[in-house]
Amino acid sequence: MRWLKHLFSGAWQVRRAFPPHAMQAIEADIRTSETSHQGEIRFAVEAGLDIEALLRGQTARARAIEVFSDLRVWDTESNNGVLIYLLLADHDVEIVADRGIDAHVGAGGWQAVCKEIEARLRAGRFEEGIRTGIQTVSSHLARHYPARGGDHNELPDAPVIL
User: Fold this and answer.
1) How far is the C-alpha of 155 from the C-alpha of 64, rounded, in Å?
2) How many Å is the maximal CA-CA distance in the chain?
3) Are strands 160-161 and 40-46 parallel, antiparallel or unpaired?
4) What are the pLDDT digits (tens) for 96-117?
5) Sheet with 92-97: strands ordered across
6) Is pLDDT above 80 for 3?
7) Cα–Cα distance for residue pair 135/113, rounded to 1 Å
8) What's the topology of domain 2-146+155-161?
9) CA angle 103, 106, 112 (to 5 degrees)
10) Which residues have CB under 8 Å from 44's CB, separation 6+?
11) In sequence order, what are the beta bridge partners of 71?
12) Counting CB atoms within 10 angstroms of each CB, which of 51, 57, 116, 130 has the fewest?
């Protein structure tokens, strides 16, 4: 059943869940949040996995780790990049954090953020879910990596549609 959901998923579902105004709001939230901390947040959404990934049994977590690498979220000066990844066909949210911030928050902390987002996704409130997740991730980053003078934006703020 899972492979049917993925094979019939497409960019139109991403656009329906996240119309242009929602993507702009998410980008603005990331940009604004990064003024309160030294961390970097990326958001990536994917409609569904391709047939090859499905045949391999790839999980959303494994795909999120690939995307974390591909988007170079790990490539920050303080090792404090965080990826919020949404696999729309599964309504599965994964957070992959670089080792600096992950040492402070841990798997349980990230899982709590994922559950918070997923509850809103199940209710059809996609934009609200992601924006709330960004706020929560940002609060972790601000607590452990507060803003300081001279910070610069190391990664793009724009959401990525895969």
Assistant:
1) 17
2) 51
3) parallel
4) 999 999 999 999 999 999 999 9
5) 92-97, 81-87, 40-46, 160-161
6) no
7) 10
8) Diaminopimelate Epimerase; Chain A, domain 1 (3.10.310)
9) 150
10) 67, 71, 83, 84, 85, 86, 159, 160, 161, 162
11) none
12) 57
Residue 154: CB partners within 8 Å, gap ≥ 6? 40, 75, 76, 77, 81
Q: How many angstroms separate the CA atoms of 2 and 146, rounded?
A: 41
113-138 tens-digit pLDDT: 999 999 999 999 999 999 999 999 99
User: Residue holding tokens 């494994």?
Assistant: 62
**Tell me: the pLDDT tens digits for 17-63?**
999 999 999 999 999 999 999 999 999 999 999 989 998 999 999 99
What is the spatial distance between Cα 133 and Cα 71, in angstroms, rounded to a whole number? Answer: 19
**Domain locations in the chain?**
2-146+155-161
Residue pair 134/43 in contact by the 8 Å Cβ criterion: yes
